[in-house]
């Protein structure tokens, strides 16, 4: 088999909405530069995602120089949200983590509240180096993560998606496939591997940057959400339950923690180090 390569890069500046696919990205200790530095929360200061709000799939956030974002959504005028001035932080709940973040301008809260028809606020992760440690079961001391679900990067492979789609085609909901990769919201996508090769990785290099594999990525209902229409189906969770169950998790993709700094570029060689 030929040398695996980096097929695509995906940065999501605002958690739970569409991002963009640059040809190159800087790898920071807590993830790709600019990735998931912004988050939406509800009136209880808990994060808002596509799980209860599938319409977030139709919204997008474009990263701007300096860290701000330009957000857009159906029926809404685009809005530019600048990085807030340093001030007192607010404690929010990101799954089981209590995280300090800075409130955005009130215009951003009003925009998202109107779109989701709910009481929404927008926050920015001002200091990713200190705010949110990675699960200590899978981390070294001092390692942190942005507003990503749990780990700095998620890697998927095109061959595993092809294999999954073949399994979906044999199942009861074949009409839902084939699924595109955007269902899984990866950070980096690799081509040129055998299907499910990532299950055996413990360390890899993408170009000049090395990564430690933390754990397989358990998947949730967001993967059943069509990212173009916000409609939900049964796949891929039905097929993952039959073929990719590890303990109590249905897995697709692998979580990564950077071991070094640098940039990754589409076309970079991907080397399995261990």
Could you report the average pLDDT, rounded to the nearest whole number?
Answer: 97
- Low-pLDDT stretches are none
Fraction in beta strands: 25-35%
Percentage of residues assigned to helices: 10-25%
The ordered string of helix (H) and strand (E) elements is: EEEEEEEEEHEEHEEEHEEEE
Structural class: mainly beta
As a whole number of angstroms, the C-alpha radius of gyration is 18 Å
Instruction: Provide a count of the helices.
Output: 3
The tally of beta strands, per DSSP, is 18
Task: Give an overview of the whole structure.
By secondary structure, the chain is mostly beta strands. Helices cover 11% and strands 31% of the residues. It has helices spanning 106-116, 158-169, 237-243, and strands spanning 5-9, 24-28, 31-32, 38-41, 60-63, 69-72, 79-81, 90-94, 97-103, 121-124, 153-157, 188-191, 203-206, 209-218, 245-246, 249-258, 262-265, 270-272. The strands form four sheets. Strands 1, 11, 12, 13, 14, 15, 16 and 18 form an eight-stranded mixed sheet that branches. A four-stranded antiparallel sheet has the order 4-10-9-8. The chain has a three-stranded antiparallel sheet with strand order 3-2-17, with no helix packed on it. It is globular, with a radius of gyration of 18 Å. 42% of the residues are buried. The mean pLDDT is 97.
């Amino acid at each position: 088999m030929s040398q695996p390569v980096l097929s695509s890069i995906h940065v999501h500046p605002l958690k739970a909405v569409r991002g963009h696919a640059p040809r190159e990205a800087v790898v920071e200790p807590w993830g790709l530069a600019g990735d998931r530095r912004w988050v939406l929360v509800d009136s209880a200061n808990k994060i808002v995602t596509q799980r209860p709000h599938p319409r977030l799939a139709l919204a997008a956030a474009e990263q701007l120089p300096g860290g701000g974002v330009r957000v857009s959504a159906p029926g809404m005028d685009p809005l530019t949200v600048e990085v807030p001035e340093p001030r007192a932080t607010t404690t929010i709940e990101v799954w089981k983590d209590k995280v300090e973040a800075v409130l955005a301008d009130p215009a951003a809260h009003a925009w998202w509240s109107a779109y989701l028809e709910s009481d929404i606020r927008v926050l920015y992760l001002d200091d990713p180096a200190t705010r949110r440690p990675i699960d200590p079961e899978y981390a070294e001391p001092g390692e942190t993560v942005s507003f990503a679900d749990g780990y700095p990067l998620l890697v998927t492979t095109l061959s595993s998606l092809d294999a999954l789609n073949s399994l979906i085609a044999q199942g009861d909901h074949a009409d839902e496939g084939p699924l595109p990769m955007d269902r899984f919201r990866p950070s980096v996508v690799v081509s040129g591997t055998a299907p499910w090769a990532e299950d055996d990785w413990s360390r890899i290099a993408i170009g000049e940057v090395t990564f430690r594999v933390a754990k397989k990525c358990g998947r949730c209902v967001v993967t059943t959400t069509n990212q173009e229409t916000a409609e939900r189906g049964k796949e891929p969770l039905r097929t993952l339950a039959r073929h990719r169950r590890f303990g109590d998790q249905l897995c697709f993709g692998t979580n990564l923690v950077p071991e070094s700094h640098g940039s990754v570029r589409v076309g970079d060689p991907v080397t399995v180090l261990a």
